[in-house]
Amino acid sequence: MSGPLMFEVLKLISLGWNLDDGKKNKNDLLSHESELLIRELPSLTEYFSYVYYFGAISIGPIIYFKPYKDFITKKMFDGEVPVEGESLTNKDGIIEGLWCLLQSLFYLIAFLKLSSIYNFDLYSGSLLDSRSIFYRFWVLYILGFTYRTRYYGAFKFSEGHNIIAGFGFNGYNYDGSKRW
Questions:
Q1: Residues 74, 7: one domain?
Q2: Model's pTM, two decimal places?
Q3: Where would a tag sit more exposed on the chain, N or C end, judged by fewer CB atoms within 10 A?
Q4: pLDDT for 12-25, tens place per residue?
């Protein structure tokens, strides 16, 4: 949990500086400060898609909010980018993104419920010694699944926010429907 929080704190700090620069006169700022300034507070969806954008997590917190927003809104491409004769809008993936967020909620609730029943402290030591080998394998399987659900929940949460932000388009299926 400390890794994602580290990225979130650093991005929150840089976002705060850019918002503070947005309150100042442009003539009082350096050139790179005026390029990154933000005048309006981003929405919660924009903020979470920025914080959990996979590319920024994999390369570090060097992406500022304004270039990120210019990328997902396609402003950096001077307008909309046509994809096979059609242009995408940010609202195209709302249903798919909400479905990912619902899955995230399911996995996090499953983790909370299952981890109260199946945790390593309850099933370590002599408690399993008196049980059959099949019961031991079952408990190990459930323990593994229980602890993986928190990662599934975090991944689906970040995937849902990126899709809602318009960033998760992945081409077309064979029937012509959009793939996210």
A1: yes
A2: 0.53
A3: N
A4: 888 888 888 888 88
